[in-house]
Write a sequence for this structure.
């Protein structure tokens, strides 16, 4: 046998060995996937019910603090609005109400004076 034939023979032997190992590994993986699928089918409904219960518990736990934060949020929002309005130099609600009262009073006085002058 020549050197080339020996190298070719070694290559073919190694190729067959790798192919056999790959087939065996692929078969193991295939069996593992089938086993996982079978176990999921067997325990799937129970697992699903447990997940639903856990989700419901978590939702209840999260909904309680949310009620408290939603009550606190408007006051925080009002506080932020007030700070922004003050930074922009806008009047507060109380100042606007006071000005409206003064305007109404002045309007009444002007109307009264207008009636008297006729």
């Amino acid at each position: 046998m020549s050197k080339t034939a020996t190298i070719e023979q070694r290559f073919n032997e190694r190729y067959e060995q790798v192919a056999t190992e790959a087939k065996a590994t692929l078969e193991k993986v295939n069996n593992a996937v089938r086993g996982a699928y079978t176990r999921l089918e067997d325990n799937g409904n129970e697992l699903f019910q447990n997940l639903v219960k856990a989700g419901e518990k978590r939702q209840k736990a999260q909904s309680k603090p949310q009620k408290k934060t939603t009550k606190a949020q408007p006051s925080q929002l009002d506080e932020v609005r007030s700070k922004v309005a003050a930074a922009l130099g806008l009047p507060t609600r109380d100042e606007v109400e006071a000005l409206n009262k003064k305007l109404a009073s002045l309007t009444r006085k002007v109307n009264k004076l207008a009636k008297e002058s006729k």
In short: The chain has a mean pLDDT of 83. The chain has one domain: 3-90.
